[in-house]
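Dear V.,

Thank you for sending over the compound details. I've combined the ligand you provided, zinc ion, with the protein sequence from our construct and run the structure prediction for the complex. I'm sharing the raw inputs here so there's no ambiguity about protonation or stereochemistry in the SMILES, which I know was a concern on your side last time.
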Amino acid sequence: MQQPTWRQIREARRGTALATCAVLALTVTTSASTGRLMEESPQAAGPVSLARATTLSPCMITGTMGVQMSEGVPTSAGYSRSTGTVKALNLMVDFSDAPGEGSALDRLAEFFPQTSDWFRTSSYGRLDYRPESPVPDWLRMPKSFKEYGIERGAPFDPGYRELVTDIVAEADPDVDFREYDLVNILITPNAGPSALDTVLSVTFAGNTEAPVADGVPVSNASFVYSRQDDGSGSYGETGYRVLPHENGHVFGLPDLYTQDGGGAVGHWDIMSEDWGANNDLLAWHKWKLGWIGDDQISCASNSGTTEHTLSPLPENGGTKLAFVPLSSTKGYALEVRTRGGNDEAICKPGVLVYRVDAEVDTGRGPITVSDSTKDSGGCTRRPNVHAELSDATYEPGQTFTDKKSGVRLTVSDIDTEGRYRVHVTRP
Ligand SMILES: [Zn+2]
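Below is the predicted structure of the protein with zinc ion bound, written out as structure tokens.
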């Protein structure tokens, strides 16, 4: 199957209760770039080391060719690295038909320092995200915004290629692009529609066909438009969250919301909902990113009953994820979610159970959370938090059963240190 060599992630209007996006164009037209075979195969060196203990290998599920962005472990090559010091180039861009209002550094301040803090907290300090802005003023593009023809779902060619080429030309005297791991293009908020109507924000990840600057392609770039301001008064605290979401793509993470909105994963991952109250990433994503080590994964591949002790996700250290592989491409994940760290909206602490399928593409539901209390209506009414799944967690005494495979997951108890003991039974 032909795939472009890069991944374009177009955003739906995510997470708000006001409207859902009718069009979610996730299929990349191969004519938009030179179609070349892209294998999402595990031989590529991702952020997670390949030197794996054999006990973990059954849990390292992988997708097949033809999946743009896969939940497979390890993450395939071409994305920005997600551990250590990562330098982000921020460029603030405006147009003759949308001149920047206020200073460019004010636009930057809508995203920092919160974005760097978010990454430090979520990664337990393993990602040192360094934002830089060597051009402190608006970069005026030579064409009007309208002339670039950018609208929701616009492919890289021709509009984005022209825009990136122009940005590089304008910034080049002040910027050495070789110094940066990723690029954030912060567009003046008055260009294009309100995010309440249409989210234009987009990331082109692993795009080796991108224009070259200082000898390197601008291959991992996030574009942020408008303001994700729902009018609830929380923009100052929550408006930055589109950027960690977009940068999640730059690090290789797929979208977890679908055409139907956030009903697959709810507010349990910023790749599902990035409006409203702060949230974290699933432990599965943290493993993909290298923020949780192999020694923090408990792989439940043996038949019979096994016990796994999981420490809450916000705490540094301890076993964070138990994974029950069903095949080489899918399985069930278990993790403990409590309020803390980046998770501020959790109203029912407990064990989150979700299915991961590395063969399901970005935006099509690669992860599905199992709701322990179906049709309950949830335990929160916070704006932009998917209510129904907010109480999805399992508490001591509760069991999840997958009838098809016969896998049974039981939350046994909580020990004195707040760790949850779970028992996995597989035929
Ligand atoms: Zn996205």
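A first observation: Helices lie at 104-109, 114-122, 145-148, 156-171, 235-238, 242-250, 283-289.

Warm regards,
I. M.
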